[in-house]
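[SOLVED] Need 3D model of a three-part complex

Original post:
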Amino acid sequence: MSKTHTRREVLGHAARGTALAGLGGLTGLLWLKANATFAWSINAQRCINSRLGAVGVDVCERCSTECVLALSAVRAVNEFKSCGRCYVCPAYFKITSAVGPDGLPTEKVCPRDAIKREAIGWIDPDDPANNFYDYTIDETLCNGCGRCVLECKEPAGLGSIRLEVRHDTCLDCNRCAIAQACPEDAFDRPEPA
Amino acid sequence: MPRCASLGTVLPRVAGPGLLLVLVLFGVSGPAAAQEHVEYERPVDVAPTEDTIGEGYVTPEVQRPRPRAAAWQIADVVLLAAALGVAAWLAIWRRQRGWLVALTTACLLYFGFYREGCVCPIGSTQNVAVALVDHTYAVPHYVIALFVLPLVAALFFGRVFCAGVCPLGAIQELMVLKPVEVPRRLDKALGWLKWIYLGTALYYAVLPAIERDFVICRFDPFVGLFRFTGAAWLLMVGGAFLVVGIFVGRPYCRWLCPYGALLSAFSRYAWRPFSITPSRELDCGLCQSACPYGAIEERRAVRTSCFACGRCYRSCPVHHAETPESVVPAAELAGRPPEAAP
Amino acid sequence: MKYQPAHTIGGRGSAPDQFARALRGVALDGAGRLYAVGDSAVKVFDADDALARQWPTDRPGECVAVDRSGRVWVGEREQVEIFDSQGGLTDTWRDPGQLGLVTAIGFAGSDVFLADATARWVRRYDQGGRLLNNIGDRHRKGGFHIPNGVVDFAVDDEGILHVANPGMHRVERYSPDGTLLGRFGRFDGRDPEGFPGCCNPTNLTVDDQGRVIVSEKAGPRVKVYDPEGQLLEVVADDVFDPTAKNMDLVVDSRGRIFVADTATLEIRVFEPTGSEATA
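Solution:
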């Protein structure tokens, strides 16, 4: 190779150097405010199904209808630590439906029958109202429609059920169809706490 | 009117940085309005405890799968960098197509079908744009790396990302079976579309959060194919791109890919781009008809549009002469499509 | 007997006769003055609803009661403050390790009953503050089932305790020594005779004829039951803020019902109409 540089080569070096410096500057700028992860999550304080004070609203089902997966990556999660274990759970029973011979509502809230109700602890053989009940959501059936979340909300319930993103099934779409459709801007990729 | 005329000449020069400045100011001055929440106090912890429930009851664990671990994200970046390096080595030093096809297939399987597409350097353009204008928005380190690495590679070796790493390119690359030549002027004209697409995508990305949209990802025709799921019409568009791609080499990459626009701009100043040189190749012009992308002009590779696929080397009589068992007369080669060559 | 909403007292605001953050409990004294707690203060309204006086409490008040001698008892977290009728602090009861959040106070003879929402039962003390026994602690669920967070009770003229057990959709009657005397109530989300939702009634009071007046949450509603547990009247079901819960209530000798709307921080007054009211 010749040691003399043509004008074209010099210009090329200059342009390349400028572009590299620009990319470096951009990287530095973004690096300073970069966060650690990038995962979609639902802000329960914004989601209309769980937001306190939003009483008498219709259920928002976009988490179940908008996801690119056939079975949405969003599920309802019952945080057992804060569940009241009620005898008549408004998220399990459609509490305004007719009462059956057993004294319980005859219809359920979940359209996919994904919630299991089971008496726990010491079980009173004579009085079923005298028991605590666990309400377990079957992850393989739940599609995150949010009906139980809405019904569990204060003041009707304790708000122990929330919609959450299943990170094992979520495809981490860079443009999340649910986030785009969410009317409350509750679907976000926040910085990890 | 003279004022208008002077404005007309000045405007294009200041519009770019000016627009960016306006967007930055917007991002800084427009924090999301805090929503008012009704606060409740719960007087006592009302959920029954394990002791209250009794009979040895244990509160069930709530399964919460963690997001993809940081180690995997680092692995993605390392794999991307390695693939870029290998692609550059194969295309520029080894000058071999066979291994490039293997690399591109491997990247299609990993970045496409295994990682299912997201986040990719193409889409990351939008994240970077948002991060620049919205001070509340931060992208992870690995997304910054995904965006920057292929551009740095382009500054040194040209579009090696397109050559062997990009899964969107790969799925089209493998479909090029019966390429026809696109008239040069039409090719050039369609090439402007990717700049329009890039501009549109950036515009929608830097809108305030509530109106923001990532159109590149929204209309990505191939990600649905990687995932075997997605909107039916987009899957059909993806299929149509592949069918058209049998005859027209990599239509998305050549005319639509917004990241391709950036890569072509950066590869213009590449240090050691993909090249067809008289010293190593036969200066015969056979390669020009072998290139399905119209990226060889006057027997030289065009830096900005060359995908470094290596078909030109495969068609070159000199390269065939290097391997004695596959010597084919040049005249015979010229009549065949490149894939048909052994 | 029908009821109609008459007027409201208080409301959310910073004026002296309003509540800034919370309204938790209401009570009446023998002279018909209304006592309300919330915001770490006791506010006394005279018979024409004007603020007569107010004084601060040590901790946010959860409930209030006035005994026969006019002393004002305020239930708080882990303590009860006892004031004279002018607001002077005369005593503070604490029972470390025992007494939790006090959400209701009642009197019968020389007994003082404190509802303990932390333990989920009612504690019976003598006038000197000595614990005599607990009521509801023999419950199989370890106490009353209160997913709503408060235990509320009322003592009738015969000294019988009426305790709300919302998780079981029942009102239970106890003798002062803790013997279950009877109960009424069942779940029903349609028929107003029953108690709807997960946990109702949340609060109750008893009038001088032994009628039980209950408040419910989600949706907020006030109903009157006869002493046998038969529904007499739905007093109101659409006037409260839909987020209101644990609405304390009290009834005066004229049959007027005072309900604390915990969301709008208003005390809503319902007046009986018709022949029985004047009888």
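Edit: Helices of chain C lie at 275-278.
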